[in-house]
Amino acid sequence: MLRLTLLALICLPGAALAHSGAHSGGAFVSGMVHPITGADHILAMVGVGVWAAMIGGRALWAMPLAFVLAMLAGGMAGALGMMVSGVEPMITASVVLIGAAAALTLRPALATVLVALAVFGAAHGFAHGVEGPSTGLIAYGAGFAGMTAALHALGIALGRMGAGWMPRMMGAATAVAGLGLAGGAL
Fold it and tell me: Distances in Å between the alpha carbon of 38 and those of 45, 55, 80, 99, 178?
């Protein structure tokens, strides 16, 4: 059931567009909704959790935390109107690389993983910040940070399910979907 729900979210027509614009319901709700309006965000955030579950230990909390904190910093930069180039390609690359890392069960030094996830998180956050409301930034940031943490937790739960091949297949599917996003197929 959980897999079907995730698949349905990814396949929603609006989800094919990375950032579908304003959301109703106030800044907090808008922040919560934004990460689930784009397949790129869902895939990367769930992928972080799957990969963290595969690495285990301190990675279970450190990987999601690095992503979320950097995402908040990137969100602030976007909300303040800072100019950053290459954000969308970086977001797409994050989906492919996080998925590939999980599929290949890569276990580099945790510090290396955290730096990479911070870069990816900042890119995702920048996109959230640019698309966010002009008022209520703290509530909006809390909403998108909370939803991101929930998607990471979902990924951790999925990464702990079944045999060792299952999380690897989820990683491979994430990487392939990222390639589809890069080619405009999704």
Answer: 11, 26, 22, 16, 12
